[in-house]
Write a structure and sequence with these properties.
Number of strands: 9
Distance between the termini: 32 Å
Order of helices and strands: HHHHHEEEEEEEHEEHHHH
CATH class of the largest domain: Mainly Alpha
Low-confidence stretches: none
CATH architecture of the largest domain: Up-down Bundle
Shape: globular
Helix content: 40-55%
Number of domains: 3
Bound molecules: flavin-adenine dinucleotide
CATH topology of the largest domain: Butyryl-CoA Dehydrogenase, subunit A, domain 3
Number of helices: 10
Structural class: alpha+beta
Strand content: 5-15%
């Protein structure tokens, strides 16, 4: 792919930031199971919390290609930061920018862009993960607005968030997407989950006990919540693909450096063909996944610019985003696993960075749709094409 001079400069900025502020702190955050809160201020100062927000609302209005380049770099530095930033910019700010009323945009986008408010996306529930259409959280009509009741699970950024997009069933009218201010009565945040990887990322449950949302809290059109969720997930999956590419690249670079330094049988292990095959295979999988992430980004941009780009079919936005996330998440997990192998016994030790990368990479195979669901989505679109040809 050919990047413009502007994109290369922005990528260099993100890379310097990741190198200086994230990489050296990442293991400490993983052990502390939290990010340094100050990191969000630094991300906001660089504009990285408003990457997809129009300039009139204080954002940088990046094209998706530039956005994905930045996400890869941040995730290379620390995958938990990559996840927080991806959710805040993609499913949250992206949906408001696309479907918000003027009032909602004026209220929320400047706060999101400046980092005063961190965004969260609450779709999953204890009994509704892959089958996101089966939510039990309900939104009952109340005065001119709605009253939300239910429980949400695994909400990234959940405890820190100043805005949560909550999806709930409307009585007989499909699903609604609601902009919820967590300071309202009836809103509760559960204990932070103890996670395998991405330990510095905040994953919490949320309870909604008759949370009142006024008329202005419904995003877009009544009953369109589910299509909005799916649309947000297309953008989200392209972002997670970029996150996974960053994790995989980090594993490959650690492994290559170690292979040059570590000597066995009187020579660096990098001289052994078995090690070289692993490094070559990492590079192939990561480079291919990067192309697929940017391919998905290009399709999403073409669809949202009304260029008539389809959402369905194997060339459509949804399949291309699923292909990118599937490929990149598997590339990341595979690369991190093989990086541990290259480090040998040291790789299995917490002191070295590669075991964290495997724990982090695994998450990318699960959130924003598991890889089984990615395969299901891709096959559905292949079969749709076949049935209509
Ligand atoms: C770290 C982390 C952060 C997250 N952040 C968020 C967030 O911010 N917001 C949010 O809303 N959610 C979030 N999630 C939730 C995540 O999106 C769900 O965990 C995921 O969609 C899977 O749902 P589930 O866990 O209920 O698994 P289930 O749906 O119960 O699936 C269990 C297994 O069955 C398989 N399966 C299910 N249906 C099918 C099928 N039709 N065909 C084949 N196999 C199938 C799955 O692939 C999986 O292997 C997060 C999860 C994690 C781990």
């Amino acid at each position: 792919m050919k990047w413009s001079q502007d994109q290369l400069e922005i990528r260099a900025l993100a890379r310097d930031f990741a190198q200086g502020e994230l990489r050296s702190a990442s293991a400490g955050w993983d052990a502390a199971k939290d990010l340094d809160a100050g990191i969000f201020r630094k991300l906001a100062d660089l504009g990285f919390l408003g990457m997809l927000i129009p300039e009139q609302y204080g954002g940088l209005d990046f094209d998706l290609s530039t956005y994905l380049l930045v996400l890869e770099e941040l995730s290379w530095g620390d995958a938990s930061v990559g996840l927080s930033v991806a959710i805040h910019n993609g499913p949250v700010a992206g949906l408001i920018t696309k479907h918000g009323s003027d009032g909602q945009k004026e209220r929320w986008l400047p706060l999101l862009a400046s980092g005063e408010v961190l965004g969260a996306f609450a779709l999953s529930e204890p009994g509704a993960g892959s089958d996101a259409g089966s939510l039990t959280t309900v939104a009952e009509a109340s005065g001119t607005g709605w009253k939300l009741t239910g429980t949400k699970r695994w909400v990234t950024n959940g405890g820190r968030a100043g805005l949560v997009i909550v999806f709930a069933q409307l009585d007989g009218e499909g699903m609604g997407a609601f902009l919820v201010d967590p300071t309202v009565d009836g809103y509760g945040v559960g204990a932070r989950e103890a996670t395998m990887g991405l330990r510095a990322s905040e994953t919490v449950s949320i309870t909604l006990d008759g949370v009142e949302v006024g008329e202005g809290g419904l995003l877009g059109v009544v009953g369109r919540g589910f299509p909005y969720a799916l649309e947000a997930l297309d953008l989200g999956r392209a972002g997670i693909a970029a996150q996974a590419v960053g994790i995989g690249r980090s594993a490959m670079e650690h492994a290559a450096r170690y292979a040059l330094e570590r000597e066995q049988f009187g020579r660096p292990i990098a001289n052994f063909g078995a090690i070289q095959v692993k490094l070559a295979e990492m590079a192939r999988r990561i480079a291919g996944s990067r192309l697929l992430a940017h391919d998905a980004g290009a399709a999403i941009m073409a669809a949202s610019n009304d260029e008539g780009h389809p959402r369905t079919g194997v060339d459509g936005v949804t399949a291309r985003a699923a292909i990118a996330k599937l490929s990149a998440s598997e590339a990341a997990s595979w690369s991190a696993d093989e990086a541990i192998q290259i480090f040998g016994g040291y790789g299995y030790m917490r002191h070295y960075p590669v075991e964290q990368l495997l724990r982090d990479a695994k998450g990318t195979e699960i959130y924003e749709g598991t890889n089984e669901i990615m395969r299901h989505v891709i096959a559905r679109e292949v079969l749709r094409d076949a049935a209509s040809s």
